[in-house]
Amino acid sequence: MAARSKRYALVIDSKKCINCKACVVACRAEYNVPLANTRPWINEETRGVWPKLMAVFQPEQCHHCSHPACVRVCPTGASYQRPDGIVVVNESDCVGCRYCMIACPYDARFFREDKGVVEKCDFCVKRLAQGQLPACVETCPSRVRVFGDLNDPKSRLAELVSGREYRLKKPEAGTGPQIYFLT
Amino acid sequence: MKTIEWGFLIVNYLFLGGLSAGLFFVSALATFLYKIEEPSPYTRIARLGALLAPWPVMIGCGLLIFDLGRWYHFYKLFLHVRLVSPMSIGTWLLVFFNLVSLVNCYAWLTEDQRNKLFASLPRPLAFLRKFNYDIDHWRRHLAFVGLPISVGVGIYTGVLLGAVQSRPFWNTNLVAQLFLFSALSTGCATLILGLARQEHSAQELRLLYGLDICCMVLEFFIVLPYIIHGQLSVQAVQDSLKLIVGGPFTILFWVFFLGFGLLMPLVIELRELVPVIVSNREFHYSRTIAAGTALLILGGGFLLRYIFVFAGQMSAMQ
């Protein structure tokens, strides 16, 4: 019997987010990202009319799309998708044309001035290879993020996606985003 | 995090690439129009176009390389052929276009010019003197091969932007057509500018005015549906059009690009050419008007790229 292929994805339960930015700090520490840039970030929004106001925090990052626009436009193949669905950038092949940044509907990529290349979230592929979770997922104190294999029906992620209501961001872009925001 | 990644270097590159494509296209058309055995006014158009065509695109390619985050890795663009990436296709189109336009430029040199060129080679390059061949007879073949490549370069500059689904301001096939006809028009304008300086250019300017009018009319009838179709499209496209309808690029687009850069030169050229065609009058051209019109067209072509590059990056799906 052929081995079942993996499809990594992320579930985000925004209601649990308290905007502590531990995910941003953990990622920055893991990858030594300059202060001017960040791989994950938190969108802050105020809803309602005073005095009935509500602060909404929504974590954001690369959506590791199933049909990534960044991979399609890359002229050198530096941006590519692994068989497990993770979209990564091969730094040595990146020439720094920034076409992928312009093509990304989520503006999830940034240009590293010091290296002259484009970077983004890669679901911590090095940590995954060692059996660890991505740094942002491991560090989140309120368990906003659930990472896992979408093709494994026993995984917590698959349970959440099949049992809870969720929404995808900008599905009209046609890129097949793989971050599931619980509603 | 939304940022403006492509700036003035890319604007200039898109303009210069289109300009070269236009110059080659007009030169190639003129090459087909003249008969080799007879001296023809079209020869001057073909020669000037061929001599000018390689240089803007080469400067543009330099700017493009300089814009890369790691410009010294630019060779990696030539290690891959990715047919799904407009930039990869464009890279190879530019390679072929540069080669063909350079050889074509050489083919249009007179014997004197060729001899001077080879005589001026520095000592380390003296071995190249044995390549001082007369390739006049290649001109039509080069025009035939280069014509589709020049159209490709003209279209590609628009496809590069139009292929980006996430930028609603760009994501329509009309951008590629708009850039193509603008490129051909700027090519005509440069030749008008070059020939207006010389005397006895009536017949050449007549042809160039006619061709330029066709390009500008087509350009206008692409801008029009671009706006109308955009306003009738999905919300994201309607929102993106606000950048040029009430937004930061409104005056630049309507007054300077559409008004001074497209409609004004179109009206001037029609005013010059229509009486000649309708009443069969002799074509009397004003050198000042010809040069002024050409400069307006070139300014309009540059502004078009400027507006599209910046406004496109500011547009996004909500």
Structure overview:
The complex is a heterodimer of chains A (183) and B (318). With 183 residues, chain A is an alpha+beta fold. Chain A is built from six helices and ten strands, in the order βαββαββαββααβαββ. Chain A has one domain: 2-Layer Sandwich (Alpha-Beta Plaits). Chain A has helices at 22-31, 69-73, 99-103, 125-129, 135-139, 156-163, and strands spanning 8-12, 41-49, 52-60, 79-81, 87-89, 110-112, 117-119, 145-149, 166-167, 179-182. In chain A, the strands form four sheets. A four-stranded mixed sheet of chain A has the order 8-1-10-9, covered by helices on one side. The mean pLDDT of chain A is 92. Chain B has 318 residues and is mostly helical. Chain B has one domain (8-314): Formate dehydrogenase/DMSO reductase domain (Formate dehydrogenase/DMSO reductase fold). Chain B is 70% helix and 0% strand. The A-B interface holds A 37-38, 41, 69, 72-77, 93-99, 101-105, 107, 110-112, 115-118, 170, 172-175 and B 1-3, 5-6, 67-70, 73-74, 76-77, 79-80, 82, 84-88, 91, 163-167, 234, 236, 313, 316-317.
Characterize the largest beta sheet of chain A: strand count, sense, and whether it forms a barrel.
Answer: 4 strands, mixed
CATH architecture of chain B: Up-down Bundle
Strand order of the largest sheet of chain A: 8-1-10-9
Shape of chain A: globular
Q: Which oligomeric form is depicted?
A: heterodimer
Overall pLDDT confidence of chain A: 92
Order of helices and strands of chain A: EHEEHEEHEEHHEHEE
User: Strand count, sense and closure of the main sheet of chain B?
Assistant: none
- Bin the helical content of chain B: over 70%
Number of helices of chain A: 6
- Low-confidence spans of chain A: none
Highlighted features:
heterodimer; A: 183 residues; alpha+beta; Alpha-Beta Plaits; 4-stranded mixed β-sheet; two-stranded antiparallel sheet; 6 helices; globular; B: 318 residues; mainly alpha; Formate dehydrogenase/DMSO reductase fold; 70% helix; 0% strand
